[in-house]
Design brief:
single chain; 8-stranded mixed β-sheet; globular
């Protein structure tokens, strides 16, 4: 049986971090949970302290935060989660089942935005089927991988955008990457701040340009103009 370490980068998540971690703890039992704080100016660290196993600190940079968590983790499997998601029941068993195949190096979950609006079903579907077509995934899908694979890749790359897509691309080169049909529930907060249709189409455009190997600085400029709403972090 594998030992799974769950790594959660966070920044100014005081309003919801305790609820997130408690729901996660209820689902994963005694699995190791590491919160990597990016220098929050609110009460994120204080509210997380009683629910996770360790709180680490890193520069506010998602790739650096996840690499910091992986370096400190004790497990032989890493599972990277965003702090605004909700994990499905039986999630650890699904990961265990997926990794029984020795040729499988990692995987991810399907996602669902818990809102009834039709535009969100478009978002859910685009995230999955466009991802299959482009052979691409983003970090809100809850990537998991073997420690050995993570170390062979060299962790998440220090790039200004698309660090999760870059990581996923490298992971696929190592071996089989599986999709778990169970859904991670993803917060709609960024979609509501920016506009769900605008953000869905912007993400799709950026993904297609990335697949076409358009330079990252150009994608960063598009992201800053189309994907950041009021009070939303870049």
């Amino acid at each position: 049986m594998h030992c799974i370490s769950i790594i959660v980068p966070a920044l100014n998540e005081a309003a919801t971090i305790q609820q997130f971690l408690q729901q996660l703890r209820n689902r994963v039992g005694a699995a190791e949970i590491l919160l990597v704080d990016g220098g929050s100016s609110d009460q994120t660290r204080e509210r997380a302290g009683d629910v996770c196993d360790r709180i680490l600190t890193a520069k506010s940079n998602r790739a650096l935060q996840m690499n910091t968590g992986a370096k400190a983790a004790s497990g032989d499997i890493f599972w990277f989660l965003h702090a605004d998601s909700k994990v499905p029941g039986g999630c650890l068993q699904e990961i265990e089942r997926a990794l029984r195949d020795p040729f499988t190096v990692g995987g991810f979950f399907r996602i669902r935005i818990p809102r009834p609006n039709l535009v969100y079903r478009l978002t859910d579907g685009l995230a999955h089927y466009a991802g299959l077509l482009l052979r691409m995934r983003f970090g809100d899908h809850g990537f998991f991988c073997r420690r050995t694979a993570f170390e062979k890749i060299g962790g998440y790359p220090d790039v200004p955008l698309m660090e999760d897509a870059e990581f996923f691309r490298k992971l696929r080169r190592l071996g089989r990457v599986v999709v778990i049909p169970a859904r991670l529930l993803v917060s709609p907060r960024r979609y509501e701040a920016v506009g769900p249709l605008r953000l869905t189409l912007s993400y799709g455009l950026i993904a297609m340009l990335y697949a076409a190997r358009i330079p990252l600085p150009f994608l960063v400029a598009i992201y800053r103009r189309t994907c950041v709403g009021p009070a939303q972090p870049v």
